[in-house]
């Protein structure tokens, strides 16, 4: 990592030199022009063109040597970003369609939080969406008589030690969509790692009949998939 950082610093330094030198040529021409000093002689233009060509060739060689497949990596990064934002926008629309009381701004916050923390904790994105849908109908302020709180209905008194260890320091912040999503995805990731069967893991999350809960999750997954298909068609 340190080696890559050093390469990046060198590259930025070389780029800054090039920009400075090219800018200097333009500044010299600008300052000399009012004094009728010619800067357009053929040898001057030729020298400038040679400098630019030499620099471009040097930069290409350096980039190809130290940044293998740079264009490919940039393309992959762009594609990943587009996919990320597409998922957030699609889910925002689904949240609004499922709960009319959720504002557009809040829907975007919820969608962004679910996307971010599903990636952070290695939980399938659509599964995190389904759990939030089933548990709270995407209401970040939801609470139950049992003590479940927030977007994914996490019970503080049961999981407080784990939550505190991961930066969720009190029960009240579970009502914020970011912390509610973080807490729910954290717990889901633990249950998924401890159980080879997704249905069993979800049953542990639910704390009740796993078959009943699984059927609810499946209905939510189907609804979300249908929403994605409709959005694609439109």
Features:
234 residues; 2% strand; mainly alpha
Question: Can you characterise this structure?
Answer:
There is one protein chain. The chain has 234 residues and is mainly α. The protein has 2 domains: 1-26 and 51-67, no CATH class; 74-233, Lysozyme (Orthogonal Bundle). The protein contains 9 helices and 2 strands. It has helices at 2-32, 42-66, 70-98, 104-120, 125-136, 156-165, 177-194, 198-206, 210-233; strands at 148-149, 154-155. A two-stranded antiparallel ribbon has the order 1-2. Helix 3 crosses helix 4, helix 5 (125-136) crosses helix 9 and helix 7 crosses helix 8.
Helix content: over 70%
Give the CATH topology of the largest domain: Lysozyme
Under the CATH scheme, which class of the largest domain? Mainly Alpha
Order of helices and strands: HHHHHEEHHHH
Unreliable residue stretches: 27-39
Number of strands: 2
Distance between the termini: 44 Å
Q: Evaluate the radius of gyration.
A: 28 Å
- In round numbers, the mean pLDDT is 81
Task: Name the shape in a single word.
Answer: elongated
Question: Main sheet?
Answer: 2 strands, antiparallel
Structural class: mainly alpha
Strand order of the largest sheet: 1-2
What CATH architecture of the largest domain would you give?
A: Orthogonal Bundle
Q: Count up the helices.
A: 9
Provide the β-strand percentage band.
under 5%
User: Any idea how many domains?
Assistant: 2
């Amino acid at each position: 990592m340190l080696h890559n950082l050093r390469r990046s610093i060198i590259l930025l330094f070389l780029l800054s030199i090039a920009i400075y030198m090219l800018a200097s040529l333009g500044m010299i021409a600008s300052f000399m022009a009012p004094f009728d000093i010619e800067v357009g002689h053929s040898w001057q233009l030729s020298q400038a063109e040679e400098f630019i060509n030499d620099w471009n060739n040097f930069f290409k060689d350096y980039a190809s040597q130290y940044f293998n497949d740079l264009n490919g990596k940039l393309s992959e990064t762009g594609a990943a970003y587009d996919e990320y934002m597409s998922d957030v926008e699609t889910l925002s629309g689904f949240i609004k369609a499922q709960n009319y009381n959720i504002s557009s701004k809040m829907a975007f916050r919820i969608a962004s939080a679910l996307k971010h923390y599903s990636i952070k904790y290695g939980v399938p994105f659509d599964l995190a969406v389904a759990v939030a849908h089933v548990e709270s109908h995407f209401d970040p302020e939801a609470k139950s008589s049992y003590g479940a709180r927030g977007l994914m209905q996490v019970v503080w008194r049961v999981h407080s030690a784990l939550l505190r260890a991961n930066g969720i320091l009190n029960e009240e912040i579970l009502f914020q969509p970011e912390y509610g999503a973080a807490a729910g995805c954290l717990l889901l990731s633990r249950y998924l790692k401890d159980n080879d069967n997704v249905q069993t893991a979800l049953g542990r999350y639910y704390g009740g009949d796993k078959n009943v809960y699984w059927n609810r999750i499946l209905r939510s997954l189907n609804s979300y998939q249908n929403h994605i298909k409709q959005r694609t068609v439109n």
